[in-house]
Amino acid sequence: MLLVLRQYALLQFVPATRGLRLCVFVFENDKSKKQIIEISKAWAYPYQAKLELQEQLASLKGILQIYQQDSVVELENARVENQTLKELVIALEESLQQHRDFIDDLSRGLKN
Fold first, then answer.
1. Domain extents for the chain?
2. CA 49 → CA 74, 80, 107, distances in Å?
3. Span 2-55, pLDDT tens digits
C-alpha cells in the first residue's frame, strides 16, 4: 500500500492511493476509470492548495509594496510640509522682531 502524508498549514491530507497497484489502467472498465478519477482528484488537491498559497503570497506582496510606496510618498510629503512650516516660523519670528523694533522706536520717539 502506498501512503503519502502531506501537510498544508493545519490541514493534513492523505491522497487516496490505497489499492493503486491493484488498479489496472484500462479504460474499458468503469471501475478503473472511477479509481483513476478519484486518484487524480486526490492528488490535485495538494497542487491546487499550493497554487492558492502562491497566489495569496503574491497578492500580499503586492499589497505590501503598495503600502511601502504610499509610506514613502507620505514621508516625503511630511518632510516637505515640515520644511515649509520651519520656513514659516522663521518668517514669523523675523516679522515679530520687526514689529518689536518698530514699537521700541515709537516708544523712544514718544519719550523724547
1. 28-111
2. 37, 46, 85
3. 344 444 454 555 556 666 666 555 556 677 678 778 877 777 777 778 888 888
